[in-house]
Amino acid sequence: MNIKLHSAELSRMMKTMTQCIDPKSQNLGNIEIIYDNNLFSIRGTNGQISAVMSAPVLGGNGESFCIDGTMFARVCAMCNDIVDVSTDGKVCTVKGAGRTRIPIVKAKIPAFEYVEGKTCTVKTEDFRAGYNSVSYAISSDQGRVVLTGVLMESTDDGMRMVSLDGFRMAVEDVACESDDIRMVVPGAFMKLVATSTLLGERITLKTDGKRIQASTDSVLMSCTLLSDDFPDYKRILPTEFKTESLVEVDDIQNALKCGSVVNTSNNLVKMEVQEDAIKVMSNSEQADFDADVKCATNGDSLKIAFNHKYLMETIASVSEKSMTMKFNSSVSPCVIQGKSSNGCRLILPVRVAG
Prior knowledge:
With 354 residues, the protein is α+β, with helices and mostly antiparallel strands. Helix content is 19%, strand content 44%.
């Protein structure tokens, strides 16, 4: 085999592939390079996630071989412009920034598991926007693995994505064509799909209830689903509110960012919700901060406190210019919703003395 391809394309392929291999494993740290019918493909798996990345090329005869995936990625990262990849059956030679020879290994990686079942088709930009809106509330706590995933369930108009980490919840609706589907997808796989697919492509998702497969013209990946015991998010969301405040997203973000300079110890932000302003307050042993953010409030005045970092991340996930903050009391969840959005964010307050 002797083929040439652009370094940018090869780097994109390997950026995805390095997330699908296990460098600590003798076999699962390898990748398989496949050339067939003018299509150059790279395949890898870590036992949980499997992926195949492909690109059209010219040159060489049909061939496949396995090499160390981490080493190949490092070499590709050094290359500029056109990269020449060839093999003599014993080593894979990469010419780009100099010449690097990587031994071919005999160990084979497991075959790709294709999935057939219910289908959902979505634009990459819509999938990416949905994932970006809920990613901040995906839990990293392996004590309850189901919360490290995203619930995806079909709706009348498309697909709903839900994430929940025990302190925050994000709900976002995505326009798509979908069969009747409900599944909990690992957050790592969601991120991989969002970052590996190109804008302008359409992603086809397939599930048989045990695995999920995502594919475009250049990417094919699959993953084992998480167990379907995701909390009933509809029961968590309040349906009525005593106080609702309409506020500009940039205004309250700026107040929180300024307050974070002062808030170096307790990571706490306090708010006083009033008729025409929300007073944002932070303090530490070194300094105090407060700012009045203009708003339009319907309902009762309210004092409430939040984890500063959690609140900033929650508000940052709102893509609109205006949002409504909805409250019931100082100890009940706050629901945040873009002015014209069907999605919503929920964040639990922090109990403070007095």
